[in-house]
Amino acid sequence: MLDVQRSLGLLLRSKVAGDDAAQRAEQIWGKPGERWFSSADPIWRVHRDASMFVGGITALLLQSLQPMAMAGVAGHSGYKSDPWGRLQRTSHYLAVTTFGTIPDAEAAIAKVRSVHHRVRGRDDRGRAYSASDPRLLKWVHLAEADSFLRAHQAFGAEPLTPAEADTYVAQAGVPAGLLGVLDPPGSVAELTAQLAAYRPELEATPAAREAARFLLLDPPLPLLARPGYGTLAAGAVSLLPPWARSALQLPLPDVLTDLIGRPLGRFSVGVVRWALAGVPDGR
Fold first, then answer.
1. DSSP-derived 3-state class of residue 128
2. What are the residues whose beta carbons fall under 8 Å from the beta carbon of 155, sequence distance 6 or more?
3. Domain count, the chain
4. 255 is in which domain, residue-wise?
5. Are 215 and 80 in contact (CB under 8 A)?
6. Nearest alpha-carbon partner for 58 in 245, 276, 272
7. Total Cβ atoms within 10 A of residue 23
8. Which of 24, 116, 124, 193 fits 132 for a cystine, CB–CB 3.0-4.6 Å?
9. What is the number of alpha carbons within 13 Å of residue 59 lying toward its C-beta?
10. Is 165 within the bounds of a domain?
C-alpha cells in the first residue's frame, strides 16, 4: 500500500510541478531570505492544501467566461497543445509568490509581466485585448481567489474562519497588485462585490465552451486515469455559481451537481492528500 501511495504521489507531483519538482521545492522552501508570508498565514494554508487541485479547475472554468480573457488563453496559452506545461508554469508561479523569498517572488512577477506585454489580439467580436490590461488581470485574479477559497472552505483540511478568509483575500492581493491588478480586494465582501461587477460582460463564447469540454470531458490523460480526474472535475463544477454552470451548458441540474459533486470532490481531494503525504517533502 505504501508503494501505491508513493507512486501516485510522485505521479501527481510530476504532473503539477514537473519532473524537477524536488529541486524546485528546495529552491522555493529551502532558500533562506525574507518572505511576504509565513506558515502561520492563511495564504499558506490555502495554497498548500490538496483542495487546490479542485480550485484550479473551478478557476479555469470561471475565467473562461470573460470573452477577451478567454480569447487570450485560446490564442496564446497553448492550453491544448501543452496543458501540463501550462499547469506547471502556473503552479510554479503560485508557489514562488506564496512560499518563496521576496526577490524570487518579484522576479517571477516581472517575468509574467514581460510575457503579458507581448500577448495581445482580438476576440471573436473584433475587440482588441491585451493580457496586461488591468481589468482583465483583475478578472483573472478575482476568479482565482474566489475559486481557491471556495475549494478550501468546501474540501480543505483546515477551513478558514471568516476573519482568516478576509486575510487570505488580502494576502492574495499582494502579488496580484505587483502584477498589475488595480485595487485588489481586501476582504471576502470586497471580492464578492468586485466579481459581481463583471457579470454584465461575462458570456460563454464558443471558445469558453470548447475549453470546458476539454477540461471536463476530454482531459489529456490516459483512460485509466480519467475516472479519478473526473471526481476532481465534479467537485470543481459543484463550486461554480449556478449562472456560470448554465452559461457553460453543463449537463446536470444544479441539485444533482451539488448532490453528486460535493461528495466526489471531498473523496478526490482526500485521495490526493493521502497520495502526497507519501512523497518525501511532498509540499
1. strand
2. 50, 51, 54, 235, 265, 266, 269
3. 1
4. 2-277
5. no
6. 245
7. 11
8. 116
9. 22
10. yes
Cα–Cα separations (whole angstroms), residue 81 to 87, 97, 131, 241: 12, 26, 20, 29
Q: How far apart are CA 3 and CA 277, in angstroms?
A: 12
Which helix (H) or strand (E) is 70 found in, with range? helix 67-76
Residues 58, 63: Cα–Cα separation, whole Å: 9
CA geometry: angle 271, 86, 198, nearest 5 deg: 90
Q: Which three cell numbers stand for residue 243?
A: 449562472
Q: Are strands 128-130 and 120-122 parallel, antiparallel or unpaired?
A: antiparallel
Positive or negative torsion for Cα 134, 135, 140, 146 = positive
pLDDT tens digits, one per residue of 25-84:
888 988 999 999 999 999 999 999 999 999 999 999 999 999 999 998 887 776 776 777
Alpha carbons 213 and 233: distance in angstroms, whole number: 11
Query: Which of 207, 48, 227, 69 is closest to 133 using CA atoms?
Result: 69
Q: Is residue 248 part of a domain?
A: yes
* Residues composing the chain: 283
Any domain includes 283: no
In degrees to the nearest 10, what's the CA dihedral of 46, 40, 99, 52? Answer: -10
Q: Is 256 exposed, middle or buried (0-12, 13-18, 19+ CB in 10 A)?
A: exposed
pLDDT tens sequence across 175-208: 999 999 999 999 999 999 999 999 999 999 999 9
Residue 137 pLDDT > 70: yes
